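Thread: "does anyone have the structure for this chain?"

Original post by V.I.:
We have the sequence but no experimental structure in hand. Need at least a predicted one for the grant figures.
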Amino acid sequence: MMYSSRRKPVLYFTKEDSRSGLLLRMLPRRCSIFKLFCSLIMLGFFSVIWLHYNCTINSSQSRTDDALVHESCQEETDNSAWGPHKIAIIVPFRERFEELLTFVPYMHAFLNRKKIRHKILVINQVDHFRFNRASLINVGFLESGNDTDYLAMHDVDLLPQNDQLDYGYPEKGPFHVASPDLHPLYHYSSYVGGILLLTKQHFELCNGMSNRFWGWGREDDEFYRRITAAGLQLYRPTGIETGYQTFKHIHDPAWRKRDQKRVSRQKQEQFKTDKEGGLKNLKYSVVSRTELTIEGVHCLIINVLLECDLNETPWCVIN
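Reply from O.Q.:
Generated one for you, tokens below.
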């Protein structure tokens, strides 16, 4: 029998070949090369159009979201409709960057929910002396600016977990947010560390904090005596039922060991009241001021060099 030579060329797939891929299994048993080529061209064309459209939509949405976040941070940080008072969150700081990454956006969101006008000042000690939390808080007070009228002495590793905690203007007297019955670690009655709110007038009445405490600890206990000596009434939260779960302590003692050494006369001096020192004899210099944005939230990093009188406090260095 004779077959016509005009018959179109046909692409055949064997049963074994048809199992080699999903695309081949979807094709008919007989498919012309020309039709297959045209189908692939059309598929590629529509794929490019879909990808371009999808990327354009996503890019536009991303730009819109970024703009909204930036605008929100700017407006909600200092919304005058929230009241006449504005708090300076003063964070004494050295080499705690991982904790700062958590602290700044967390506290910003917390204060926004409570509609409290605020700005975050990170006072970063960049000299080679031992860490001096009290002096850094004194620096933060002096650098806080005229746009704030009260301050929070706030540890970077302590995060409030209960929205009922009051961060409002402490008109009656210093307000100890991290009270002994709520703080996860320190429970003695004279403790005023962690988070303490004061008006600027209250802080000046106390002459700030003592500059004699180099290394970790005891500066809060001395400040408690200053509050009492200034005739101020100390207030603490009431009606908080979350107990020791009220705060999250994000400090890792294995990774961030505290400088608890007591050298020279420091053992005897740490329990004394500093009647003269404070804001009046604070000596420091500002190296730089840097605006830092973390997850869309702004804070000010102030790098400072503290000064130490080795005749007065030789324990500011460890030989």
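V.I.: this helps a lot. Helices lie at 22-26, 33-77, 97-113, 133-142, 200-205, 219-229, 266-269.
O.Q.: and Residues 19 and 25 are 6 Å apart (CA to CA).
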